[in-house]
Amino acid sequence: MENRTEGAWIVHHTKKLQDVTNATDFEDIEIAGKCGLFLSSLAASDEESTLNKDKVSAIAEANNIKKRLELPAIIDTLSKAQLIDVSNTGDLSVIGITTSNVLIHISNLFKETSNDFQKAAIELTSYSSEKPIKDNILQEYIGDCYKLDSKTNSKLFQQAEDIGFIDYENFDSSKTYFNGNLFKRDSVEKTTKVLESLSSDDSRKVSELDSLITREGCVSQEKAIAILGQTLLSKLQAIAMYDFNEVSNSTHSKVFLTKPSSFSKFGNPFEEDALDMAKAFISSLIYGMKISTTGRGRIQDFSMLVNTIRKLLRGERVGPCTAIGQDYQVLELNRVIQLEYSHGSRYYMRLLKFDIGTLALAVLENGDLAEHSTIESNLNSTSVSNYSGPENNRWKLRRKKETTVQSNIGELLRTMRN
Questions:
Q1: Does one domain contain both 278 and 381?
Q2: pTM of this prediction?
Q3: Gyration radius of the chain's alpha carbons
Q4: Angle (nearest 5°) at CA 1 between 271 and 176
């Protein structure tokens, strides 16, 4: 497995581990992943960054890193790896680093400490990411590759299921494993198989929604429900046929659907945005464009959106306006952008992570996102303080295990397994 791919899977597993307690068998995965998340938020792409203790603490909190129990160990690990410098006052300095390099560093940190049990936990999800696979085949493959006895192998799979490293459905008298990456590659072929497995009426509805997303880039969850109904849409979310992106603040949230293959034209879609930063960047900007008001400094249309990103990529400031100071908190916390105060409630912003901006622009101009996105809303406030990525939203749905949602998911998986 290439370092970037391994790093991306470590991030995936770390995000799952953040939602559970007492997962001590995967400590090396978690420390490497949290080091990567922290390092990525510290760094800008093209310049050295120095952050004081308060900013470091805020970044740790934003990444769900315990400041007393975990942060000192993470800082020590990154310092020993010569990825950051720590001053006597506690300030941290980091050289310019891209998302791609972060994934490589994560992989290297993991290799230094990991054992076969944890390596197997990475491999089992990677191996099942192309298509659903029966339990006996996957368990035999993992046991043979990593020389795990049957008891240890069973323990690994049980923990992987409980934590969410891997997902499964029971049908054909056995488990079939899969994960949220199924539609990131070969999406046309897999979508065709799903359509063939549905009733003619459901197939027509899914074709309508799929064509709409292809044509318009993203649609609101409300629009998708109007076309498919909640039950059918939930089934498609459960198998990760669409990405459900959620942007929210303290008073409301907005979810819209995109295609997992949106990034596939620019390399491995799983690796390209493993940290979800480009998705968060695009989601926050489109959200503000559709919901904000002109008086606050709203991005008025798609052309202005693209020009704004281009200006940021030239190293120029955008603004000043009120919206910049209020709408993009999640981007500021992840240091995708940096705000600079102007006057009153108005701020400028400039881009820190140029690789994220470049990828976002490429997706907007050449990917599946197009000019007339159909996010409708009558909401008045647009301050985006949180972004929840597609896999997190899919897993929340799976955790509910609603009978109406789960029914016939096995049929959808069977079509892709063959």
A1: yes
A2: 0.79
A3: 22
A4: 85
> Quick one: 132 and 253 in the same domain?
no
Model confidence at 286, pLDDT cuts 50, 70, 90, reads confident
Here the tokens at position 91 are 């300030």
Considering the domain architecture, whether residues 75 and 156 belong to the same structural domain is answered as yes
Domain that holds residue 265: 244-390
Average pLDDT for residues 83-99, to the nearest whole number?
85
pLDDT tens digits for range 356-377: 888 888 777 765 543 333 333 3
Q: Is the pLDDT of residue 265 over 60?
A: no
Cα separation of 83 and 67, whole Å?
19
149-155: Cβ within 8 A, 24+ apart: 152/117
Q: Which of 176, 202, 232 delimits the end of a domain?
A: 176
CA separation for the pair 409, 403 (Å, rounded): 10
Instruction: Spell out the alpha helix ranges (H) of 18-64.
Output: 27-42, 53-62
Q: What are phi and psi of 308, to 5 degrees?
A: -65, -45
| Residue 290 belongs to a domain | yes
Does some domain include residue 59? yes
Q: Are residues 63 and 144 in the same domain?
A: yes
Q: Is the peptide bond before 132 cis (omega within 30 degrees of 0)?
A: no
203-246 pLDDT, tens per residue?
999 999 988 887 776 788 899 999 999 989 988 888 888 888 88
Amino acid occupying residue 33: G
Given 176, 191, 226, the domain boundary residue is 176
The verdict on 165 and 304 lying in the same domain is no
Give the integer Cα–Cα distance in Å for 278 and 353. 10
Res. 69: pLDDT tops 90: no
**E strands, 270-365, where?**
318-321, 337-343, 346-351
Q: Are 8 and 122 in contact (CB under 8 A)?
A: no
* Relative orientation angle of helices 200-216 and 221-228, to the nearest 10 degrees: 150
Three-state DSSP class for residue 115: coil
Number of structural domains in the chain: 2
